[in-house]
Write a structure and sequence with these properties.
Oligomer: heterodimer
Strand content of chain A: under 5%
Number of helices of chain B: 39
CATH architecture of chain A: Orthogonal Bundle
Distance between the termini of chain A: 49 Å
Number of strands of chain A: 0
Largest sheet of chain A: none
Shape of chain B: elongated
Strand order of the largest sheet of chain B: 1-2
Largest interface: A-B, 89 and 115 residues
Structural class of chain B: mainly alpha
CATH topology of chain A: Helix Hairpins
Largest sheet of chain B: 2 strands, antiparallel
Radius of gyration of chain A: 19 Å
Shape of chain A: elongated
Strand content of chain B: under 5%
CATH class of chain A: Mainly Alpha
Structural class of chain A: mainly alpha
């Protein structure tokens, strides 16, 4: 199971990186979202796969690890916030430059 | 017994606050700057008085120490140390400070702006505080903090007339040089603390032998000396001091003659017991000091500006002081303390007199002034006395300083290599300084007036009194019979630097000695130079027109400019290029620094496919497959819209995986946030102009058509594969080599019910155990919403579009248009009408029972936002604004944050920890439904819901706004 998860995380990460490097701005944003998803998946899998029951105080059996879940929760919400800001920036950029092709926006220097 | 050693600083702080308060509008009418200065001069005066009393308490005993430990585990603390050396400098700082503050009032008195210069007084008093802290510091880190404080306040004072470009340049130069030295000083002091074992001054001074024998000694000494040299304007760092003369004269008189530039001298003297008495110390300080002495003396003669002349003679004297510290003999330290006091007295007096001349005559140029003795008699007398002290003539204090200096230079312990150069250099420098003093007095006050346009008269009484006091002291200490108390005080101060007893006698006449003969030679030479000054100065002008240390300074900056131009040319400006470089760099770093080293832990993993016991494992594999496949689909799908939908599918598959974990809370959040993300992405997509969207789609479709495009794709694929492989490998190692049992979670599992009354452990962690994290998280989320609003709507509103609060006319008789401009069916309307209240009910349930069941404030907030998004899509922007008038995002966010802060503070008051758990319902005995607690957790959930709702509605509101131009 660990091997499959690792491969999945790696593949998701690779897809995310590939998307981030593309010229279309929206695909770039999608890549960023996938990156966050890959990290969340990684965090989730660090909670051992031994959990048979949800993390409740009155549950019977081996509980799944509650701490990574709390961390993922926070991460999901914050990355949502980050993504919305990035999208707003993309909108402003595309209005300013009249294009959503990232290669035509080349004044990031100086 | 701890002494109130911080008291003088507190007094000055009161002065600072008073001066700053004087700038408050409305107070200005009756408070002229003269009155303000007179009032504020009380602060340094009382500090001076306090210090005198402290000296009496000190007697001849050991130093007074006061310390508060800030971080005991790191040995960091704030400490003050009061011995005779500190007392000497502190008395100089406060004494001269009083006079300067008083002088400032009259200097800046003007009819148009009677209250104008409160800011100057604030900076001046702030500087005084920093300087006091420096000389009273008992811990090298404290000393460094105040050292930098003096640099900063000096910068503010030099650049006071900020419209004057010369002032700005001078201030920058001073900050650059002294700040650079400050960095070196910090490193040196840290090394010193490391070697001595503590940053406390007492420990450092006691561990002299350890320090001197340490292998780090040369580096330590070099760095600390660099810091001291830059501050005390030693060659070649002296170039900032003449340029700093563009400060207003009171500042120059205070900082750049009497106090700040002596800080380096103080530091070297203070650390002498620890760092001194070695050959390196001797040569380093002697050579630099000597060079400085000669440079200052020589360059001072050719100046035309009176203040520049004084600046160069200050540089020369600072060189002398550094040489003296380097000698490490008993007589040297006697000369040091006498020299410090004498110089402070005559130089401050001279600067203030020059300031009066400038103030009354309007010029500082020697070529234009002359004959002012007739119209400014009192200033003339004061200036004459001070100049005689500067020239080193009896019976003034300056004469004593010169004598002891010469006695040190001719002491038998001076090594034979330099025992001729030292006296010769000192005599020559002394001659030049005498000529300068003569030039100052003669060409300003005596002779015929050179420029008929100058009309001067005597300045107000305070501007004569302020320089008169130090000048008088110079005369009194020399002429009157030997003052026992002063001599003993100076001897104690010198002894602290020397580390042994020092005899100080202030008698002027000690017999015909070699120093006296050398003095006579110096005076004659100086007189000769003075009489021939015109020819000497012309020679100087011709000789060194082209060469000066300033060339080095200018060269350094032009080098920086060229380097930055080169760096800018190497940038391509494109985001993708930078991203590629960053990613490849990070991959290389991680791989290279050992991320790939744990091969052996791979042995424990079991091959998959052979271990599918039960449907859960199969479902997990399926979920993983869907996640990766949907993500891959976003690459391949041609239209952006489809790619976004595929992204949503991937996110939902992640939620499936989370349900299988089992992690119901997280799965809930993942589902709602995923849907919200998709909605937001689609709204963004619709905001892009149609033409851009079409071209963007063409980009995707035509990517593999051109050769360049294929290369790009290949390069991206390579980077992606490499980083993906690395991440997979790292994940694998992490998953197989981590401990099977968590160390922290059992605590949460055990105490969730007991401490917080919650059964849902994840919820308890978020809302109680790590509540501060969550508080910051909701603040971040609200900032993101605010940021989106500001970026997209604020500019539009500011640029003239009407605020959207006025509701548009009621359109109930027209068909309602949805977000795409199309008519929507009544069935969908009904769904929307039902969904919003239903979502609110769900939200309330999540908030109330999130303690024991899946769901919490986040899911509540996002659920309502989803319903809201549905309304935007169905009804269109204007209808929603019209119908949902209660939905104001900013009050929601503010209310949420305020709620959690209030409940946290209440918890702090009741249990002693901010955001601790308090069960209000239980305490008050309220009858509540089963399973619901009115506690801080519940209030926090409500707060989270409100902020998330507010922020998400900012998002939807901004992005759902119809078709305006985004500026």
């Amino acid at each position: 199971m660990e091997l499959l998860t690792a491969l999945a995380v790696g593949a998701l990460f690779g897809v995310a990186i590939f998307q981030m490097l593309r010229r279309n701005a929206i695909r770039s944003a999608i890549g960023l979202i996938l990156l966050g998803a890959a990290i969340n998946l990684f965090l989730l899998s660090t909670g051992a796969y031994q959990g048979l029951v949800a993390a409740y105080a009155d549950a019977v059996g081996q509980r799944s690890d509650a701490l990574p879940q709390a961390l993922i929760l926070t991460a999901i919400v914050i990355s949502m916030g980050g993504i919305s800001l990035v999208l707003a920036l993309l909108l402003v950029l595309s209005a300013r430059y009249g294009t959503s092709d990232l290669d035509e926006i080349d004044e990031l220097r100086g | 017994m701890t002494y109130l050693l911080y008291a003088p600083m507190l007094i000055i702080l009161a002065g600072v606050l008073g001066a700053a308060a004087a700038g408050a509008p409305g107070l200005n009418r009756r408070l002229t700057v003269v009155r303000l200065a007179r009032l504020l001069a009380l602060a340094p005066l009382s500090a001076f008085g306090w210090l005198l009393w402290a000296v009496v308490v000190l007697g001849s005993g050991p130093a007074l120490v006061w310390r508060v430990d800030w971080l005991p585990s790191l040995g960091l603390g704030l400490g003050f140390y009061f011995d005779h050396l500190s007392a000497l400098f502190a008395l100089l700082v406060t004494g001269i400070g009083t006079l300067v503050v008083l002088y400032t009032g009259y200097y800046f008195k003007s009819e148009e702006r009677p209250w104008g210069e409160w800011r100057f007084l604030t900076y001046l008093l702030l500087f005084m505080m920093a300087m006091l802290g420096l000389v009273l510091a008992g811990d090298v880190i404290t000393l460094f903090v105040f050292w930098e404080g003096t640099s900063v306040t000096s910068f503010l004072l030099i650049a006071y007339k900020s419209k004057d470009e010369a002032a700005r340049r001078g201030a920058f130069k001073s900050l650059f040089i002294t700040g650079g030295g400050g960095i070196a000083l910090l490193i040196g002091l840290l090394l010193l603390s490391y070697v001595a074992g503590s940053s406390d001054l007492i420990t450092i001074l006691a561990s002299g032998d350890t320090v001197r024998e340490s292998v780090l000694y040369p580096a330590m000494l070099g760095l600390i000396a660099l810091g001291a040299f830059t501050k005390s304007a030693q060659t070649p760092f002296h170039i900032w001091l003449p340029d700093a003369m563009s400060a207003p004269t009171p500042a120059s008189a205070y900082l750049h003659s009497a106090t700040m530039v002596k800080a380096g001298v103080y530091l070297l003297a203070r650390l002498n017991p620890a760092l001194g008495f070695t050959d390196l110390w001797f040569w380093l300080l002697s050579l630099f000091g000597l060079a400085t002495m000669l440079t200052g003396a020589y360059l001072g003669l050719k100046q035309n500006d009176l203040k520049a002349l004084l600046a160069y003679s200050t540089i020369s004297q600072l060189g002398v002081l550094v040489v003296l510290i380097g000698q490490d003999t008993e007589i040297a330290f006697k000369a040091l303390v006498i020299g410090v006091v004498a110089h402070a007295l005559y130089k401050s007096a001279l600067f203030l007199v020059v300031g009066s001349v400038d103030h009354e005559a309007g010029s500082r140029d020697l070529r234009r002034l002359g004959g002012l003795a007739r119209v400014m008699p009192f200033s003339f007398i004061v200036g004459l006395v001070a100049a005689l002290s500067m020239a080193g003539l009896p019976p003034l204090f300056g004469f004593l300083a010169k004598e002891t200096l010469l006695a040190t230079i001719t002491h038998p312990t001076v090594p034979p290599a330099v025992d001729l150069i030292f006296p010769v250099a000192t005599v020559v420098a002394g001659a030049f300084v005498l000529a300068q003093a003569g030039m100052l007095i003669w060409d300003t006050f005596l002779g015929k007036p050179r420029d008929p346009a100058i009309h001067a008269h005597d300045p107000p009484w305070a501007m004569v009194l302020a320089p008169a006091l130090p000048a008088l002291l110079s005369l009194a200490v020399g002429a009157l019979p030997e003052p026992e108390g002063l001599a003993r005080f100076l001897a104690d101060a010198a002894a602290e630097v020397y580390g042994g007893k020092v005899k100080v006698s202030l008698a002027l006449w000690t017999g015909i000695t070699v120093p006296l003969l050398l003095s006579v030679i110096a005076v004659s030479l100086g007189l000769g130079l003075f009489l021939a000054r015109r020819r000497v100065r012309a020679l100087q002008m011709r000789v060194d027109e082209r060469w000066s240390f300033n060339i080095l300074y200018a060269g350094l900056f032009s080098l920086l400019d060229r380097a930055s131009a080169l760096a800018t040319r190497m940038q391509s400006g494109k985001l993708r290029a930078y991203l590629t470089v960053i990613l490849l760099g990070v991959v290389a770093l991680v791989a290279g620094s050992g991320g790939l080293s744990n091969w052996e832990s791979l042995a424990v993993l079991s091959l998959p496919g052979l271990d599918f016991t039960g449907e859960v494992a199969v479902l997990r594999v399926f979920a993983l497959l869907v996640i990766v496949a949907a993500a891959a689909a976003t690459i391949v799908l041609r239209r952006d819209f489809s790619a976004i939908v595929a992204l949503g599918a991937s996110g939902l598959a992640i939620a499936v995986l989370m349900v299988l974990e089992p992690a119901p809370d997280v799965a809930l959040v993942q589902v709602v946030v995923d849907i919200l993300t998709v909605v937001v992405l689609l709204l963004v997509l619709t905001r892009l102009p149609r033409e851009q969207r079409r071209r963007a789609d063409m980009l995707i479709m035509r990517e593999s058509d051109s050769r360049q495009g294929r290369l790009n794709l290949a390069r991206n694929a390579l980077v992606a594969t490499v980083s993906g492989a690395l991440v997979a490998f790292v994940t694998l190692i992490a998953l197989t080599s981590r401990p099977r049992l968590s160390a922290v979670t059992p605590y949460y599992e055990g105490s969730a019910k007991a401490l917080t009354g919650a059964k849902d452990i994840v919820g308890a962690i978020i809302v109680d155990f790590r509540a501060l994290d969550t508080l910051i998280e909701i603040v971040v989320f609200s900032l993101a919403g605010l940021g989106v609003y500001t970026l997209l709507r604020y500019a539009a509103i500011k640029s003239g579009q009407k605020a959207e609060r006025i509701s548009p006319p009621i359109t109930s008789h027209l068909p309602t248009l949805g977000i795409g401009g199309r008519e929507t069916s009544p069935f969908v309307h009904a769904l929307a009408y039902v969904s919003l209240p239903l979502s609110m009910v769900i939200a309330v349930v999540h908030m109330m029972y999130g303690h024991d069941q899946p769901g919490d404030g986040f899911t509540a907030g996002v659920t309502v936002s989803l319903a809201l998004g549905f309304w935007y899509v169905v009804f269109g922007y204007h209808e929603v604004r019209r119908r949902l008038t209660w939905l104001r995002p900013a009050p929601l966010i503010g209310g949420g944050v305020l709620l959690v802060v209030i409940s946290g503070v209440a918890a702090a008051l009741l249990t002693g920890s901010f955001l601790g758990h308090v069960d209000f319902g239980g305490r008050l005995g309220l009858p509540l439904p089963q399973g619901f607690d009115l506690s801080t957790s519940f209030l926090f959930e409500v707060a989270i819901c409100l902020t998330v709702l507010g922020s998400a509605s900012y998002l939807l509101d901004t992005l759902g706004h119809p078709g305006e131009e985004v500026t």
